[in-house]
């Protein structure tokens, strides 16, 4: 029996056919974690006793004739989700002993669908990095190269999937935190349309788990196949039962097309604010070639594309304005002094981030109004195209960099250094307007590292990029076991 790297869909079929039990699957996954996770360090909060108990209950339910979309399937959960009885720290040492009493909505939905939760996966401090390390749980390593990061902030989940530690995982995304780890580890992830999946309980400690409509941030699925993303999204999707869920259900429209030949795709591999590394550019071109070979209509330019510089600037300002909202008054005063020293001609992303840190409410409203113009621009673009293919970050996974000042870090792109956070411009392309985006494997770099791209789709038409991901998986392949 070897189910470690099988898809959730295949595992569900085997369970229904009686070829394997959930107890056997769970024991196999736990044995794999105990053998390999000493090096990877993806599972920061194991919960094996409860997992085995859950597996036994799943097998008993199946014996009674019951079923569920994830019944008996071993999964993992990002550490930042509340799980009753397990610590939720967000990597912050001050909250190392914080244990919530209630599951997050997404976790509750996983369990209701029958999933067996093996444990929680590692994150960066406060979820605010493209890497996954903190003082409580240490550093998570990339399964493809242990000297490199698996990404962040859902890096533990991506590393767990690539290592065979469960068939599915759930993460979150505000700065590419689902897509970047998927890209770095060679797996799949889907950033849903903003608001599609309830995020209550994915909250920093010790804040109460309230049904708040977060700006930019989403929760979403991670998997080793595109079809598994759809399976898990269907479990997660839906409004919070305390708010819109009182009156509304979710029914996503079907994908616009079922075959590649029906798709109209805009392919981007250049950004005006940061270059695209050669390995990532090759991945984008590989996907473009596959689309053309499959009969899709592929364009490289469109006058309908919203301005990429303004989009990146808006994204950075909206992102940081929320991040610093709870800073002490003294910190805000220091930031205002720094902004006052900026030249009016400084239009760099560093300057945009600094200005965003001292946004007034009026400033935020103005930025949000400009965002609405961008959203309208995307609606017009998606009247002519079905999806946009573009990078997730400019490079494959980079070496661990634990410099304490993130603003002083640099990212190496083909031998030239750029500000560390400038690489977020591609993630922000979908995040700022709230669009769905699916991260898919697109080959490997000359060094053998995974390379992924994202497929951005129309708002609330999540099944369109997900279907395109399935079709590309059939044509160019998908997840590969790390060598």
TrEMBL record:
> PROSITE patterns attached here?
AMIDASES
The answer to whether the entry has keyword Acetylation is no
Q: What is its EC number?
A: 3.5.1.4
Entries under Pfam families matching the protein: Amidase
Q: Where does the Amidase domain lie?
A: 24-464
> Which GO molecular function entries does the Swiss-Prot or TrEMBL record give?
amidase activity
Gene3D superfamilies, per this entry? Answer: Amidase signature (AS) domain
Q: Keyword Hydrolase: yes or no?
A: yes
Please indicate which superkingdom the organism of origin belongs to: Bacteria
GO CC entries: endomembrane system
Q: Which UniProt keywords apply?
A: Hydrolase
Listed NCBIfam families: PRK06170.1
In Swiss-Prot or TrEMBL terms, this protein is called: Amidase
